[in-house]
Amino acid sequence: MKRNRLLAAATGALLAAAAVVPAGAATASAAPAAPTLTNLAHLDFLLDDVPLLPGVAGHSTYNQSAEPTARAPWVYANRNADGSFTRVGGGPITNAAKGWYAQGTFDADDISRAAVVYLRDWKQNGTTSSRASAYELLRELTYLQVDSGPNAGNVVLWQQHDGTLNPSAIPADQPDPSDSAESFWLARTVWALGEGFAGFRQSDPAFASFLQQRMSLALRSLERQSLAKYGTTEQANGVTVPGWLIVNSASPTAEAVLGLSAYIAAAPADAQARTDLQRYAQGIAGLSSGGVGQWPFGALLPEANSPTFWHAWGGMQPGALTAAATRPHDPGLQQAASTDLAQFTAQLLASGGPDNGWTPTPADRTQIAYGVDSRVEGLVAASDATGAAGLATLAGAQAAWYFGANPADTPVYDPATGVCVDGINGDGIVNRNCGAESTIHTELSMLALDAHPAIKRLALSLTHTAATDGLQVVEAEKGTLSGSTTIVTPPSAWTGSANWSGGAYVAASTGATVTMTLPAGHPAARILPIADLGPDGTASSGSGTTSWTASVGHRTVQLGSTPNVRQGAQGIAPTPVFLLPQTLPVAAPAGATSVTATVHGTVRLDAILVQPVVSHLGLTGTGRLDVYVNGTSGTVPQHLNSTGGVLAVRYDGSGHQVGAPIPLNGHGTVTVLPGGFTTVVPR
């Protein structure tokens, strides 16, 4: 109740947009009830019985002899022409007689996360069938876990429909065999075990005790592996990164932290688990990167070996740090999470949404439920934990993706059936299949929305993306070249940790210039040149500096200079190529038509990122929401171009509201705080 009163008081404008009523009348009690969104029918359809084969060395589960089957979701579901679905496994069928797939029918990744969905539905809605499904999924998951021997605690990823385990799939997983070392699926097993123990602790103590034993088994495995390296660091292209993340990635580590946080809340006396939680959370926070106007704008990067790669999928880090911040109390963890959510996520939304890959330019613009849910859950959790009302607004804006405010401009979830989609391609084409991972993360979002009626109403009211004015890319190789320049097209755009934007770059030396045309009619913008800064020791290695100017009519504006090389060890990075965007100190003025690079030394110039000083997201539907995002460290005025009266609410760089909502006419001026954002809704 306290949370609902806070939202009603601090986000009157948000509720006004969602309910389309005057702000003064907008309260949680006055707003119309929104429909229930959670519908597990399609996830239920994906579930199937799995034989728990006896006598398999190292594999057993709870009450196996008395209950010789469990349940698991098929990995994929292909949509048929009539709208129905066919369940399929991973890879081609390799044994038609047995129905075996090259990978398998079921996998631990989806079994674990499906268990979390049913556990949360049971907890939130008291659904008896969800309790039963969670029980069976957890029994199945623990059967996949190795219970003894040198790999004890690790987990087999794939299983065939007849119960046969497939430790070495085709193509091979990493690790191979899949139970030979720690993995994403071990981390997700910890997530499910933690929430499972908390869920069953009172209703079924015997089963909870078994889950606790398996949690201990999993943690002992992690303590032998990544946690044994706690306190060590690595170098990745000269950047110091934590050396104790699960498979060197914050993505699986965050999901383990979610499980550990739930577990510690239910088992506060487990001191070793608390230590493990704290250490993993510190590692995740150690990948907080950039800041206001500096790529990646305060994001928690996912991969320790790549300081130039962010992906939306597997992005549970902000939610995980929020969960861990109070166990034990560590405000630094919450600060890292809130910076990611209030600064980076606001910029992400204004730039088109949760893309599958910024490498470092938005290269893979596919968007999937896993990425969307990661943002939604993080925003909701941090808003609850900190009272930052702006994060609740951003949560509604991000969740609107499911209801039409997405690159395809169409709803991608049907609450009547529980059917979702497997993603939206970069060209806006919708993949209408609906497999386990997509269904799981869609339903996790729906559970979060159903628990937060104000955010749900806002999301449902925003069904169309009217404007995105955020990051844009201008390719160097498409510019006007003079002097000693060569356009180089490498065999692959992918370097191992980043992409050459557009698949090419310009190699240039002293005296050369590259002039790049800016998008027409752009506002004042920060310019972030991207060049290979890696000192690879070859003749093509950069040296010296590059100076930058902008053309505004007959004027030339000096924007600053950038180094062409940055010293530092390649370390664990897969390549010496280091495509880190660098921010010029002076913004290109509004109306600038081009930016010119003048080379002093040698450089491999890829592109420039153009970041508006104030980026803009506009969403419409039965409601309307505009979000203005400040990419600078100073307060910036923003002129509005709306019709009718509006309410503007200002938020700082942590998403906290600053001052009271400001009533304006549609053509007034608002201010956007340093590193913060301002929302505008009708009144």
Question: What are the key terms here?
Answer:
alpha+beta, disordered N terminus, six-stranded antiparallel beta sheet, single chain, nine-stranded antiparallel beta sheet, 30% helix, 32 strands
Task: Please provide a brief summary of the model.
With about 675 residues, the protein is of the alpha+beta class. The strands form ten sheets. Strands 17, 18, 19, 20, 21, 22, 23, 24 and 25 form a nine-stranded antiparallel sheet that branches. A six-stranded antiparallel sheet has the order 16-26-27-32-29-30.
Count of extended strands: 32
Strand share of the residues?
15-25%
Rg from C-alpha positions?
A: 25 Å
Poorly predicted regions are 1-29
| Terminal residue distance | 26 Å
The averaged pLDDT comes out at 94
* Shape descriptor: globular
Report on the biggest sheet.
Answer: 9 strands, antiparallel
- Give me the number of helical elements: 15
Q: Helix/strand-derived class? A: alpha+beta
Helix content: 25-40%
Walkthrough of the structure:
This protein is an alpha+beta fold and 683 residues long. Helix content is 30%, strand content 24%. The strands form ten sheets. Strands 17, 18, 19, 20, 21, 22, 23, 24 and 25 form a nine-stranded antiparallel β-sheet that branches. Helix 4 (108-125) packs antiparallel against helix 5, helix 12 runs antiparallel to helix 13 (389-399) and helix 13 (389-399) crosses helix 15 (453-461). The model is unreliable at 1-29 (pLDDT under 50).
